Amino acid sequence: MTESSERSEHPETMIWANSGDAHLVEPADLFTTSLPADLAERMPRSVKDADGRWETLHIDGAEYRRRIPKLSDAETGQDVFERAPNANDPVRRLLDLNQEGIWAELVYPSIGIWTASITDPVLLRVGSEAINDWAIEFQRSSPRYVPTATIPLLDPADAVAEIVRATGMSFKAGFFSVTPPTGVDDWQSEIWEPVWATLAETGMVLAFHIGTEPHEADSNPGGYFRGRGGALLNYMETTYGGQRAVTKLIATGVFDRHPALKVVVSEGGATWGPFVADRLDEAYRTHFSAVRPRLDRLPSEYLYTNVYASFQHDRSAVAAATAMGWTNVMWGSDYPHLEGTFGHTQKTLHELFDDVPETSRHRITVGAFAELFPHVPPAPE
Ligand code: MN
Asked: How far, in Å, is the centroid of ligand 1 from the Cα of 380?
């Protein structure tokens, strides 16, 4: 008996959840059909090796080698490279979501995630516009899709302009890499103030996705570490960027100046939130004489109020909400990526939530997401 037929016989066991982390995969011809040829060829693209194990990313004239993420099927031992072939079709994708019990999705780009490695502001601007024009067409297939607009971050003025344009196109969230592109001042800088102000004014949610730091030309191909321990070390490295980004916003008083600004960190787990909040509060108290700028409230209050996070499998994440008081925790599928829950979403949700009181379960599976994106129709009960 397959999992799906088992579920259809027991519909009462379906847990519906909104997903704070999913991805669109831009079509291969997106840029050749939307941009002049000289610009299209410099936008990010992947050329896979014949054996399917490595790929070369071509981004704005630079090349980066990386190992293609893959998963081994636990039963057959075979490598699995693609698990969700429906993901790129806006109608068939809904069949996958219905099967998995995923209602609405915060959807990040895929190629768009590499835009932090583009160095030409003009290319980044028009390329981001092309991605966003395509993503909003995808969105028009269903209100369950909440795509993030790719925000060009080489020039804050370009970022402001695209936030305004994207809001006008009905985007509700903007994708930001966890650090700005190489050579651009970091989030602590005053150059970003107009961007935070525009996000707060438009109501666009600032959406960080972990693992989106720009590629460095001299970095190791395929990750930060190679050899012994590399796979686990690299997976941890991708996690810290979201925590740093949030810390920079809190430490520089961004939420005092822009209290309406809402931030989500996707795919980075959840228990880090209370941990970072505690550390910041201790620092604020014990190093108060050196703290600049002074904050209106304790650092933890901003993290617990303005910041949200998504996790997929983490067993400790529910406790961040139920035992540590951070109620802005939401579940995420990471569909269709290999780290995600496609194929076992219901199993994961039951393992996470069967012993959790209904109010807390509802908050984490659907409520926190609905608070960020109130325009989305409510999930089935
Ligand atoms: Mn993801």
From this structure: 24
Contacts of 79 (CB under 8 A, 6+ apart): 70, 71, 72, 73
For residues 264 and 173, is the Cβ–Cβ distance under 8 A? yes
User: How far does residue 106's CA lie from ligand 1's centre (Å)?
Assistant: 10
pLDDT digits (tens, 9 = 90+) for 345-357: 999 999 999 999 9
Amino acid in the structure at residue 12: E
Return all residues near 62 (Cβ < 8 A) that are at least 6 apart: 117, 215, 217
What's the predicted TM-score (pTM) here?
0.92
Q: Which of 98, 4, 15, 11 is nearest to 354 (CA)?
A: 15
Distance 289 CA to ligand 1 centre (A): 39
Gap from CA of 286 to ligand 1 centroid (Å): 36
Report CA(20)–ligand 1 centroid distance (Å). Answer: 9
Output the CA–CA distances (angstroms, integers) from residue 246 to 210, 222, 228, in the order listed.
Answer: 11, 26, 31
Output the CA 267–ligand 1 centroid distance in Å. 5
Strand 54-59 with 45-48, pairing: antiparallel
Distance, in Å, from the CA atom of 339 to the CA atom of 186, rounded to the nearest integer, reads 28
Give the pLDDT band of residue 51 (cuts 50, 70, 90). Answer: confident
Instruction: Among 73-87, 93-107, 162-176, name the one with the lowest average pLDDT.
Output: 73-87
Domains and CATH numbers, the chain: 3-372 (3.20.20.140)
The model's pLDDT over 115-157, given as tens digits with 9 standing for 90+, comes to 888 999 999 999 999 999 999 999 999 999 999 999 999 999 9
